[in-house]
## 1
Amino acid sequence: MTEKIIRVGGVDLCVETFGDGPAVLLIGGHSASMLWWPEEFCARLAAGGRTVIRYDNRDTGRSTQYPLTKPGYSMTDLVADAVGILDALGVERAHVVGQSMGGAIAQNLALRHPDRLASLTLLSTTAGGDDLPGTADRMLAHFTSLTEPDWTDRAAIIEHTVRDFRAYAGSLPFDEAEIRATAGRDVDRTTDMRVARTNHSHIEGDEEPLRDRLGEITAPTLVLHGTEDPLFPLPHGEMLAREIPDARLVPMPGAGHELPRAVWDLVLREIVQHSR
């Protein structure tokens, strides 16, 4: 396991690798540093004979941060970051796993750089569409009631994070102690948590309409989706599996918009099988 700073496209990206074998690139979601791909999860995936790569997206963790609400980069840049990391590590093709916003990055990567993907796994994500169910009422209520913490108060930031993660969870056991511990480590290694939790909502919009292009994805695709996802309900995952050629859907029973320990056995088994 090694963590290092890689210079990509004029920015610093913090990258960590585990294991040895075919490369699996993990792309995190909105405001999520690499820590939200838990170390134990990565180690278990690496034990399946894989080189696992996780990294801090811009504005998170130890990667380059920008002025508050002014990230100054686009989806194109985030896709280029993923390619730059593979180049820096000497990886010609990787099995790409994207969660939530990371799933949008992964879809764009599959469309713009199909030669760099050995396979694609989409976890708790979507390509949008007016025909799909919207965010659950309980999630909307959470958004309405959520107030910013004192960003100078470590304990307040951790409490804020725990409350946020609980809102995204399904009916599977919620491991508050683990979320709390990870949130604490996140605070300790992030230059500015307010920036980390804010700037991804202000990314410049240069995305291509993904839904219209799903049929062009050529990478073998696995879709993993919580049956109780309150942000992108299950039909979003069903749509991806239906519209990406030969994609396969594996529901995560009881999971919300999350990767709880209770589904790790299922998810790890599926990713290892899919990346053979």
Note: Residues 154-168 form the longest helix (15 residues).
## 2
Amino acid sequence: MSNEKQSFMDKMTGFVDKLAGPMTKFGNIPFIRAITNGMIGSLPVTMVGSIFLVIYLLGSDGGLTTKALLPFLTPIAGKLVLVNSLSMGIMAIYITVAMGSEYAEIKGFSRTTGAVGSLFAFMLLNYDSIGNLVVKAADGTLSAGAAGISTAYWGSAGVITAMVACAIAINIIDICYRKNIKITLPDSVPPAIGDSFSAIIPYFFLALGLLGNPYTDWIQSA
């Protein structure tokens, strides 16, 4: 019986060893590394949001029990749940920025350029005009206000879109930089300013390629 168990364990060990090589190679793919590091980098924010959610449930009536377990927290329950909304509720935003920063470093250019570019791409993929809002003035007259933007895909539902945005943005910027399609300022200009001007043309192509694309239309109709 012990030999059969040992034989089974040997087979399992051999199977795991066979997987280890390909999985290591997969994990070393630049984009996969960026996803992994970006997810880990945004983890503290979501963990803090989860902690505040638990505290909110303990301090609100009807949370975990009919009456709040920590009633002294009830007056600030709204603020506690707000922290959760601004962390886990828009987690895709933090993931987008973190992944863009990590992927840009892997590609060899400014982390700030990558983070801002990824966020720009994410917004372009998530635009959702809800039409002109009706605004009531002090005198009672009604007028058309500015259009709004939906945040429906800024939370966990938008994580895949965050990955797509990061992949598109960083690769477009990288291609432009490698082909020298950018504004180049003299070496005497501070690096931060030089990086900002260098990103203008890549960001232009990013906006040109993503605004009104089929993926965005599909996201809005999902």
Note: The chain has nine helices and two strands.
## 3
Amino acid sequence: MSDATLTPPVSERDHAAGADDAPVTLVEYGDYECPYCGMAHPIVQKAQQQLGSDLRFVFRNFPLAEAHPHARAAAQAAEAAGAQGKFWEMHDALFEHQDALEAEDILSYAESLGLDRAKFARDLEAPAYAKKVRDDFRSGVKSGVNGTPTFFMNGARYDGSWANVEALIGTLRAMTRQGVETSA
């Protein structure tokens, strides 16, 4: 862990998978077009499966748009899908199809998820979702994020290896055993 602190803490504005009272909250700042985030995605899923109710996972958008030209639109697509209750499904689809993030691709993912296509298309352009992505990005900057993926555990930046699933899950398990209170 480092001295960097999650700013702001997790709140109702975040997309969270898992119970609010889980002993550990893992926050990822990620970019849907980032290959490293793509590699981290199944590792986080494995952590969620293994830790179950002991883990709450939060994803915040940190699109590195200069390096990844589709990242911002993909983040807005996840937010627009969230408006129809399908944030996590779109989140997964975007990571599983990182090589296909053109507008037509994103619309096809929305259709495959059963979203109202017209509403989704309107929401993609909605200022509220662009603002949410910008707010996430700014919170990452305030939290000391300078690349993706960046993880925080219970509000403190995790500087250990996320690519080593055993190390990541081991750290998360140790936190649950210690009874660390969720400060995120």
Note: Residues 180-184 have pLDDT under 50 and may be disordered.
## 4
Amino acid sequence: MEYGFGGYPWITPETYRKYSPMTYVDRVKTPLMITHGEQDRRVPIAQAEQYYRALKSRGVEVVFVRYPREGHSIQEPNHQIDLVQRQLEWFESHLSAAKPAQP
């Protein structure tokens, strides 16, 4: 990330803070599903775990799904199927609750 953020975190901490979800965690109200590969080298899973715990402690509806052996994108076919099913169920449950009643 040092190339996109203009340096390492200890050199440009303001840039890292600006783009960190943790900076704005106190504003989140929308239910959230976090999915993460355990072997992600771009975004360490510890960051997702911290975000999950912060949201949970604030009372935000949040679920966390970890995929073993996966990196930044989900590649294993069974994991892809699981991910899509979970996403569809999540959106269905939350969008159906948000729909106005039909006359």
Note: Residues 13 and 80 are 35 Å apart (CA to CA).
